[in-house]
């Protein structure tokens, strides 16, 4: 098979790496890719939002399967376009992608189908939202309704912070059209965790658990980011919690899809808040999480192509999926200043000195012979070990060998599991 992967981040590097291992695959292309992906696949200079360009490329090259990494093309209907042209593509259609593309759609879906979540109210008028600022007490969560690259969520500790957030999102339009509507939610206290699942419309199969670190700095301080690291499996996911998630969330989710006539085929990422062994859903993402993918797919032993084919054919319930017992830790190396302003083009040294680790590129590109930084999150360093402690030690030992100006990273990824 010839496969096209759409995207350019650490998630896509991991997907390309995993797909390349399949005996069914002869060639992998990635658009637009990055410097790391270029070392294991053919990168194509087409933006992941250029659906026309991607469609033409897939037709010209006789691509057998397209796998979509990021959310924007899914929300913009890439799956519907490819399917209309008779091309095989993996990911939910535009209708289903609203679960990530609109916070209010997702919240309505959860409430309608009795999926436990925070109380909320939605607004299109900034003055109405300002009037209701204390509706759920403080702290309060304010979310831009549309896509904001994982950064459109503000936890306001008081009225002043809430007012500033509403003005930034709705008046100044920091996140563009995504801020034309906001969702205000009660704040849920607890530990954040996530679960990725395979879905074929009739069956939902959870992957191994992972725990993400959203805050920029150690001890969960600083602004929210796209994710600074993960470990798998999460220590929170004991049998009791898994059962609760299955009964209260996964079964309700799949029934909700059927009841609403949503033919969902792809990955669903469920962001959870867990307090007193009780899980509530924070958000849905309609694709692999980043950097959760980096720890989950490194533990997957089954051929990913076989799993994808079983989903597209609607026979996920018959597909055997095996996971490694090894534990995985991923630490993200970011550019100085991320998630706010940061510089690009810094030369990355030391990548050839890495041992016992996988390095998945996120924001990198080639500048002549050099690999340079080209994003906020630059690299994800992943290790497998017999314990979280062992995987952590391998990762942090190798991080010291990688160097670029302004390198920043958290030093406490996976520490909770110790």
Structure characterization notes:
By secondary structure, this protein is of the alpha+beta class. It has helices at residues 10-20, 51-61, 71-75, 78-84, 94-101, 103-112, 126-131, 159-171, 239-259, 292-296, 304-312, 388-399; strands spanning 2-7, 27-32, 42-43, 65-68, 89-90, 120-123, 140-144, 153-156, 182-186, 191-199, 204-206, 211-212, 215-217, 221-224, 229-232, 266-275, 278-285, 327-334, 358-361, 364-367, 370-373, 377-385. It has a five-stranded parallel β-sheet with strand order 3-2-1-4-5, sandwiched between helices. It has a five-stranded antiparallel β-sheet with strand order 12-15-18-22-19. Strands 6-9-7-8 form a four-stranded antiparallel β-sheet, with helices on both faces. The longest helix has 21 residues, at 239-259. The protein is globular. The N and C termini lie far apart (42 Å).
Strand order of the largest sheet: 3-2-1-4-5
Q: Count every beta strand, where a strand is a DSSP E run of 2 or more residues.
A: 22
Radius of gyration: 21 Å
What is the approximate shape? globular
Helix content range of the residues, please?
25-40%
How many distinct helices? 12
Features:
418 residues; alpha+beta; five-stranded parallel β-sheet; five-stranded antiparallel β-sheet; 12 helices
Give a quick summary of the entry:
The chain has helices at 10-20, 51-61, 71-75, 78-84, 94-101, 103-112, 126-131, 159-171, 239-259, 292-296, 304-312, 388-399; strands spanning 2-7, 27-32, 42-43, 65-68, 89-90, 120-123, 140-144, 153-156, 182-186, 191-199, 204-206, 211-212, 215-217, 221-224, 229-232, 266-275, 278-285, 327-334, 358-361, 364-367, 370-373, 377-385.
């Amino acid at each position: 098979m010839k496969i096209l992967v759409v995207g350019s981040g650490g998630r896509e590097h991991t997907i390309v790496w995993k797909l390349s291992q399949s005996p069914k695959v002869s060639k992998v292309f990635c658009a637009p890719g990055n410097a790391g992906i270029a070392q294991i696949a053919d990168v194509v200079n087409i933006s992941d939002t250029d659906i026309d360009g991607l469609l033409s490329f897939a037709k010209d090259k006789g691509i057998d399967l397209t796998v979509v990494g990021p959310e924007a093309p899914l929300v913009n209907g890439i799956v519907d376009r490819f399917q209309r042209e008779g091309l095989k593509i993996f990911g939910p259609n535009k209708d289903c992608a609203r679960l990530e593309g609109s916070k209010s759609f997702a919240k309505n879906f959860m409430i309608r189908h009795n999926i436990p979540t925070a109380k909320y109210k939605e607004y299109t008028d900034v003055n109405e939202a300002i009037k209701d600022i204390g509706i759920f007490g403080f702290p309060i969560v304010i979310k831009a309704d549309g896509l904001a690259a994982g950064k459109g969520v503000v936890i306001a500790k008081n009225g002043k912070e809430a007012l500033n957030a509403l003005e930034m999102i709705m008046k100044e339009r920091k996140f563009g059209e995504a801020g034309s509507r906001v969702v205000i939610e009660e704040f849920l206290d607890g530990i954040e965790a996530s679960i990725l699942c395979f879905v074929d419309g009739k069956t939902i199969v959870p992957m191994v658990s992972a725990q993400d670190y959203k805050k920029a700095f150690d001890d969960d301080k600083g602004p929210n980011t796209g994710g600074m690291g993960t470990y798998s499996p999460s220590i929170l996911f004991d049998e009791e919690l898994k059962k609760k998630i299955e009964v209260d969330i996964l079964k309700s989710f799949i029934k909700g899809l059927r009841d609403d006539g949503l033919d969902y085929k792809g990955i669903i990422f469920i962001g959870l808040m867990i307090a007193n062994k009780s899980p509530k859903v924070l958000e849905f993402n309609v694709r692999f999480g980043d950097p959760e993918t980096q720890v989950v797919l490194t533990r997957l032993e089954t051929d990913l192509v076989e799993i994808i084919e079983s989903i597209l054919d609607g026979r996920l319930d018959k597909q055997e999926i095996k996971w490694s017992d090894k534990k995985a830790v991923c630490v993200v190396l970011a550019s100085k200043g991320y998630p706010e302003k940061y510089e690009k083009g810094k030369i990355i040294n030391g990548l050839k000195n890495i041992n016992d680790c996988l390095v998945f590129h996120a924001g990198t590109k080639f500048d002549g012979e050099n690999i340079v930084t080209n994003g906020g999150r630059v690299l994800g360093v992943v290790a497998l070990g017999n314990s979280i402690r062992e995987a952590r030690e391998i990762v942090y030992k190798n991080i010291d060998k990688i160097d670029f100006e302004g390198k920043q990273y958290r030093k406490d990824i996976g520490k909770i599991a110790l």
